[in-house]
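Input (F-box domain-containing protein):
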Amino acid sequence: MQDIPYDVWLHIASFLSPDEVSNLYTLNSTWLGLALDARYKTAFIGSLHRRATERSLNRLTDPKIAPRVRSLTFRPGHLCKILQAKKQKLAGESGVSEILKAFENLSIQTRKALGFNELSMPPDMVKKNLMKIMSLLTCLKSLRIEVRGEEHLYFSQSSEDFFAPGWSAFKDNLTSLDLRVTLEDLRKVLPAPPKDTLTSLETLSVQIVRASITTDAIAIVKDTLVPFINKQYRTLRTLELDVAEQVSMSPLLLNLVHMPLLSSFKLKQRLVSQEELDFSGLKHFFETHRYHLNTLDIGVISTCIYYPTPFPFFSQDCFQVFLPRLQHLILDLHDFPLDYLVGLIPFIRGFNTLLSLDVVGHEWSFESLRELIFPSGLFSKLRSLKLTVFLFTPLVLATLAECLPTLESLRIGFSEIGPVGFFDIFTEEIPWFVYELEQRVFPSWHLHSLDFERPLHTSPALRQRYKIALVQALPSVQMFSGLSREEYIATSAPI
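Output:
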């Protein structure tokens, strides 16, 4: 074990089952420590009726166990509910009491099936244990905080500060922070100055959502979120913004300082109308970080059915900023209006440095796909491609092989497969799809992995013919839908 780093062994142990990890306890002290680290690497504290919460509250008070936790998901809402009901002495009339009473009416088997346990310790003991646990999480690397739905009401009214002991304990070790809370609760969960600089933070993910439509979202973003992000400018490498409603991110992006290590940016934005779009901040952000961004993930989620005016969305100034080191591009365009897609192809073609391209939620016609990737050599560095075509044909494969000869991994979805019918309409022995594939062989294509997002055909017999033809036509491909060539042909599963 001396020649292999400890973290490598820990990663290997993460693939073992709980019983297999337990078998390591008695080998020696090194394996005991490794087994305990693997067992307590991930922790969850949420509903007090969840078994996972009970295990964490009981075991992590041990100073020898809590420092082994590397990842924690914390949902404080249910504890706030219980503490508030106890404090107000309204258990007989409160909604919490009704919930607990309904829980008591469930059978033991039903509770266990749902992952629930009896409330085994009083709320005050839970609070005491939780505060102690937070102060012991000295090696925590990843923290996800969730305050969902009605839990905001209880959390916002609670005077308890569950996070202060934690920020003191793990602020210098934390590398990843995921905030799934309302804007109104941001100030309560974030560390207070002067402890608001997390000296090792590399990844920050924030959901932008309000609990009330009357809340001034822009004010909270500018007064709370922007200063916090700017405090992390020296170490931040990944920034993810999930805008769960129509809130402009320009006030945030315009006020962010330059982050010299930032290499990955993700923006998930709701689209209501052209009039409510403001991407001036995105242009400024791209211009500020253009020379070190290598991963860009843009999700534009349509929220309306009718768009009165066609709008060239990807022709906006922000999408004209050249990112010379971009290697990975992900575009999520679910339900995106077709009239808004003008400029999409030139936008993608502007990045000939790409190693991977993933376009979700958009079906490409053969003509638009060829327009995207032609001529051969434009995307000479591209190794991974994920997209959906309306009609999947041997001609689509031939075009991909011609224009992307160095492609190694392809995941392709489709609505239809063709050509349909049979080459010999009298005997119906050779499907047209198979016949056309047999006329095309791709021995020089470097493709190694091919995945389909749906079965090739609903008919088992035809599906088998299609699979055999694909395997024979693509000698370089070693994995089909996660299976070896032999396994792919042999399986009867609808893949």
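The CA atoms of residues 397 and 442 lie 9 Å apart.
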